[in-house]
């Protein structure tokens, strides 16, 4: 082979080698960008997996509001922690404090129906139960522009079968620390932290300072345990 031809062959080989290295590098960069870099043992590990995959969902719910003294205190605490909750409102309270309901809705919380007067719907006639539910849904719709899709009947007692709740889903609860009646906020926090499991719905009330303190304390304690707070639809339809 002539000297010039040998040189050409060498340059050609060098060019192919450089091209091959470049292709391998690009391939690796793409895989890194897609968060799937093979680790040494052959498994595929996702970037950020430790942050998201282990989160357990749990839903905080608040009944009987809005309360003129304590609901906004709770909304401030939820906002600070970037947590969304579900509020089951009384129709008469919603009518009395529409600005608080507006704020709840604007800040991304879910709003449900808890009857108009906090009555035991199971003891009412179909007509009266229907009126309790309809008046509350209308009150919420007037303020937020949306009809609630979820009903939490007071005391957990479902209404007699009536067309009023036909398009609504009844939502009860898994954990009830009785925050409205007994114990300090630390007792309530302790009860919830002890009892809670993944996808549970926790029942609280936004009607006293100790309940608000308990709610925020529960968030802080459970977030440290890898829980993430969501609205009830997210644990029901998971
Ligand atoms: Zn209630």
What does this structure look like?
By secondary structure, the protein is α/β, with parallel strands linked by helices. It folds into two domains: 43 residues, no CATH class; 184 residues, Glycoside hydrolase/deacetylase (TIM Barrel), CATH 3.20.20.370. Helix content is 47%, strand content 15%. It contains nine helices and nine strands. The strands form three sheets. Strands 3, 4, 5, 8 and 9 form a five-stranded parallel sheet that branches. The longest helix is centred in the N-terminal third of the chain and has 31 residues. It is globular. About 16% of the residues have low confidence. Bound molecules: zinc ion. Zinc ion binds next to loops.
Q: CATH superfamily membership of the largest domain, which one?
A: Glycoside hydrolase/deacetylase
How many distinct folded domains?
Answer: 2
- What is the CATH-assigned architecture of the largest domain? Alpha-Beta Barrel
**Largest beta-sheet details:** 5 strands, parallel
What is the alpha-carbon Rg in Å? 28 Å
What's the CATH class of the largest domain, please?
Answer: Alpha Beta
Question: Count the helices. How many?
Answer: 9
CATH fold category name of the largest domain: TIM Barrel
Helix and strand composition category: alpha/beta
Report the helical percentage: 40-55%
Number of strands: 9
What fraction of residues sit in β-strands? 5-15%
Q: Uncertain runs with pLDDT below 50, 5 residues or more?
A: 7-11, 17-21, 23-49
From the N-terminal CA to the C-terminal CA, the straight-line distance is: 72 Å
Organism: Maccoyibacter intestinihominis
Pfam families: Polysacc_deac_1 (PF01522)
Keywords: Hydrolase, Metal-binding, Signal
InterPro entries: Glyco_hydro/deAcase_b/a-brl (IPR011330), NODB_dom (IPR002509), Polysacc_deacetylase_ArnD (IPR050248)
């Amino acid at each position: 082979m002539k000297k010039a031809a040998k040189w050409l062959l060498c340059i050609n080989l060098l060019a192919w080698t450089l091209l091959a290295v470049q292709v391998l590098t690009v391939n690796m960069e793409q895989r890194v960008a897609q968060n799937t870099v093979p680790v040494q043992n052959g498994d595929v590990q996702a970037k950020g997996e430790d942050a998201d995959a282990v989160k357990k969902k749990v839903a905080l719910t608040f009944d009987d509001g809005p309360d003129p003294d304590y609901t906004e205190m709770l909304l401030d605490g939820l906002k600070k922690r970037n947590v969304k909750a579900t509020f089951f409102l009384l129709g008469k309270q919603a009518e009395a404090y529409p600005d608080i309901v507006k704020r709840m809705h604007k800040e991304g919380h879910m709003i449900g129906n808890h009857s108009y007067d906090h009555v035991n719907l199971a003891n009412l006639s179909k007509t009266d139960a229907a009126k309790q539910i309809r008046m509350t849904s209308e009150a919420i719709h007037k303020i937020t522009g949306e009809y609630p899709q979820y009903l939490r009947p007071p005391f957990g007692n479902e209404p007699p079968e009536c067309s009023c709740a036909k398009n609504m889903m009844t939502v009860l609860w898994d954990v009830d620390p009785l925050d409205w009646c007994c114990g300090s906020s630390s007792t309530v926090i302790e009860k919830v932290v002890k009892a809670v499991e993944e996808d549970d719905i926790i029942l609280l009330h936004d009607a006293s300072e100790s309940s608000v303190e308990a709610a925020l304390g529960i968030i802080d304690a459970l977030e440290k345990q890898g829980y993430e707070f969501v609205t009830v639809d997210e644990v029901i339809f998971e």
